[in-house]
Prior knowledge:
Radius of gyration: 15 Å
Number of helices: 1
Strand content: over 45%
Structural class: alpha+beta
Amino acid sequence: VEVLNEGEPRLGMRWRETTKGIGRYEAEAVAFEPGRRWAEAAALDAGSARIEVTFAPEGDAGDATRLGIVVEMKLRGRKRLMEPALGPMIRRQMPSDLERLDALLREGGDS
């Protein structure tokens, strides 16, 4: 991941990234409500993608967090043939993506 505009995580934050199956793309944070919601969108060579993660306190003491994750991808051309494989691929990749998001959010909170 290459961050394109330094600073704390925020609305409008941009970065470049390369992933298996999709390739290289540039993404932007399109929603950011600390502790509640993060959404990113990207224009891909083969289409477009949007990921939204919501956070909600859970447990009797609110000592846990429930994550809601929605991934939307619209591919075009020959890449559309990959669509059936994307769900399993995204589910495998999501844990490391969430670890990266956690690190970004923690870094921003320490500044």
